[in-house]
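Ticket opened by: R.M.
Priority: normal
Category: complex prediction / small molecule

The reporter submitted a protein together with BES and asked that the result be attached to this ticket for the collaborator who will pick it up next week. Submitted input follows.
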Amino acid sequence: MQARLELKSVRDVDADAVVVFAFEGQPPALAPAALTEELYSSAEFQGKSCQTALLYRPEGWRAKRLLLIGCGKPEEFDGHALRAAAGRAARLLKERRVSHVAFAAEQPWRSAETVSALVEATLLGAYDPDLYKTDPEKKGTPLGSVTVIAEGAGEELQAAVERGSILAECQNFARDLVSEPANRLTPGKLAERARAMAEQEGLSCEIIDESRLKQLGMGALLGVAQGSEEPPALIVLRYSPETESTDHLGLVGKGITFDTGGISLKPSEHMDEMKFDMAGGAAVLGAMRAIARLKPSIAVTAFVPAVENMPGGKAQRPGDIVTTLSGKTVEVMNTDAEGRLIMADTFTYAQKLGCTHLVDAATLTGAIVVALGHVYTGAFTNDQEMLNRLLEAGKAEGEKIWHMPLDEDYAEQLKSPYADLPNIGKRWGGAITAAYFLKQFADPVPWVHLDIAGTAWTEEAKPHMAKGPTGVGVRTLARLAADWQS
Ligand code: BES
Ligand code: ZN
Ligand code: ZN
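Result attached by the on-call engineer:
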């Protein structure tokens, strides 16, 4: 979808709808006073958060419709409220089959950050995971174009529109991948999609196939893959900046295209949801796509181990011992704790390729959902400075991330009588013991682990976002690279 900046006055913009933000109790000066005074004195609309009023043919305006969208109390207004309001407006207008939408970016909605955020939220709000719906009635008409109206604006806002649309498009690309079912998105297909994207964006791409993974010695990754008829693939995409950088960021995304649990089989109820177990991989691919377009000054390599976790005659058993690429041995006590196994080998490989900093995104544990629900992504680290960089990127992009503990007191849970370590801890603190396992393979490089099991998918449609894949992580990871200071 096209996003652009329009320097005219709101009244002169020819759009199917112009959206005007409105604070609680403060009729916006921009909208015709006669209309807003009457509205605000009725019970219909007072500018409360996400309240809407759709008016037709506002007098003296070229646009067909004026949509007032409530932003709540000015003192409570922040990036989240702005994103919620813009996304809500986009969804409402899409439902009404409106094609050309324009947003009035008057103060205080005129900064580069707010303009980017509002473009992002609009494109994200207008997204529906309806690829496989064949009934055009149910599929809905996509928004045609988005315009930000800012009379007399300069280049800064032009760049903000551009940046917002890049980030949202790349996030929607990740959402497309996550909504693909596992019969259509096998590890091989995910690798093909990554390659096609890399070619289009000018990234270099290498797909490491099964025989090469064997040669390299990725025993932990291969152990997970051996139960499936679908061969695994390790996707590697590289971005090189124009001037050489000493820092080299590695982004690792869990790419389990389906997680049955393996021999430690999951219950059948809700098992369908486990097609989302490659959401970390999708987030990393989406971020790479954005990085290719934003061209930051740091070298970035993405790694997505793509594997299907299945039970079967050749599947790995509980009690099996595998040798990881690092040389450490792991006793696989539960075949459903497969994400950490494929990630462990990938971390070692990323370090062999020269990554000086690592961030991973993974739908790693049910335990993080118990801890943080569906609101915050859990972050774990071995380096506070690295975490600070990531939290700042998350904050700037409006993605909620919470720092979780990770210290040596959890070590006693990860002892195996027969191997260097088991792949699971005891019952409690499961998200932390999973992270502690990863840490054994991330050390000594500065590393942040994002457990997105609770945030990669929304079971309920939100006013500003469709039910289904959220594309969480894309913006934070891209922003981390874009704002990187060596
Ligand atoms: N992909 C799951 C994590 C998951 C579970 C995400 C539920 C969302 C909802 C992961 O591979 C897994 O199965 N983890 C196990 C680990 C356990 C066996 C130690 C879990 O969390 O139950
Ligand atoms: Zn699992
Ligand atoms: Zn999993």
